Amino acid sequence: MRSKMRVSALNLMDLLNQPSYHHIFRQFHNKKCHKGERVSGPGMRNDNILIVSSGQLRVFLSYGEREFTLYYLESGDIFSTHTRAYIEAVKESVILTLPTKIFHQLLMTYPEIGMQMTGILGDMLGSSWDIIESIIFHDAKTRLIAFILSLGKERGMVTENGTEFECDLTMEDISLIIGSTRQTTSSLFNVLIKDGDIMRIGKNKYAIGDITALSIRLAEYKA
After folding, report:
1. Which of 50, 108, 116, 199 registers the highest number of CB atoms within 10 A of its CB?
2. Which PROSITE patterns does the annotation name (predicted)?
3. Side-chain half-sphere exposure of 83, counting CA atoms within 13 A
């Protein structure tokens, strides 16, 4: 399971910030989004392409009182508003929006943008398959370990404590990512700490004692 903290390693803002693309950049509408603001959702009748300039957005599904996080969008990530997913700002954010029809015209004129989008969409598709596989075939403990390992591999630094990484998500946030309840997620997280697999070393800072050993155990759980 990917951490979902980034949709893709590719960053569309890097391309749009190049001088030769400033005229394209200026066609986008710049919008500030406050923390907790609903950016898009089913029934809002907006058909735009959005690119995150700064901050962080959460893409999720909602059925009644239940929610499931699909992705977190960060600077350079791109998404569409005409899906069945909800998009919400989880931090103070700035997004760039453009009507889908106009964006399609840009892709025909500048195929290099389309090539980068293809890479991003490929990463999103891979992440979607990871989600489906983990929910169908693996239990909550396996999904939690996979999530923690992905954080360690994506943003971890090797120290005397093991592989240290930062995570400012709450237990509620993590439970929405792995598809479990907050109580179950918290209980499983505490067991991993008690068993010495991970340790809390500060506010929003954790360490995986032996990332190789934990990865081997994860592979055994999935076998």
Report:
1. 50
2. CNMP_BINDING_3, HTH_CRP_2
3. 14
